[in-house]
Amino acid sequence: DDQIQDSISEKQAAPVLKVGAKCFPVTSIYTDDLQGLPGFPTLKDAGITDGSGGDTESGGVGSAVESGAIKLDKKLYDAAVWILQHLRKMEDGQHEGIALPPHSQSGKPGGAVLIFCPGAPEIYDLLEAFAAAGIDDRRFVIIPLHGLLEDKQQDEIFRPPPYGKRKVIIGTNIAESSITVNDISYIIDLGLEKLP
Q1: Burial class (CB in 10 A: 0-12, 13-18, 19+), 124
Q2: Lowest mean pLDDT: which of 6-15, 60-69, 82-91?
Q3: How many CB atoms lie within 10 A of CB 70?
């Protein structure tokens, strides 16, 4: 508010800073857009389970939350695996049904991927799903990101990947507003978050 700024400026001579920002084009693709593509998991009933393999609808989310036994449905991990496995084809326009514009800073395919998970246990579950699907360090630099990691480990997200590899950061949604990683081209959001 100008009136508040004038009052503060008169008393403290505070400078007014204007920070310009560059806007980048955003293309949103939802799971509904991917349904029906060969190999993409059906996510109609995907969500969370009570940790025993049962659906939270039967026991109620509240009881599952109180027991601390909530688990993401395996189909959500399968969807993230599928997207990562098919991302290059989608960038190159070689995937039937979905073509992504190149988003890396150079305008060429291959930018980094940021995947949001609700918490550290889900990050490690997704890492296991990647390993089981053969997504490994031959083509990817996969970096977990959460508050329990040492600063040195968290700093890995700012390093560029080696030539020919794609950086994949799997983090909690705290990363959504607290940091900027310049080479992120794609975001995969599992759509769930843990609230305090």
Answers
A1: middle
A2: 60-69
A3: 21
Q: How high is the mean pLDDT of the chain?
A: 76
Tell me which residue has tokens 């993401």: 72
Residue 58 burial (CB count, 10 A) = 8
**Tokens read off for 156:** 């890995």
Higher pLDDT, 76 or 57: 76
Distance of CA 169 to the CA centre of its chain: 7
Which residue is listed with tokens 């084809």?
Answer: 89
Tokens coding 137: 């360090």
pTM for the full predicted model: 0.74
Handedness of CA 82, 83, 84, 85 (dihedral sign): positive
Residue ranges of alpha helices (H) inside 92-138 are 120-132
Which residue in this structure is represented by tokens 């009881």?
63
Q: Give the Å distances, CA to CA, from 28 to 25, 136, 140, 141, 189.
A: 10, 26, 23, 24, 11
DSSP category for residue 100: P
pLDDT band (50, 70, 90) for residue 101? low
β-bridge mates for residue 142, sequence order:
168
User: Which residues make Cβ contacts (< 8 Å) with residue 9, sequence separation at least 6?
Assistant: 16
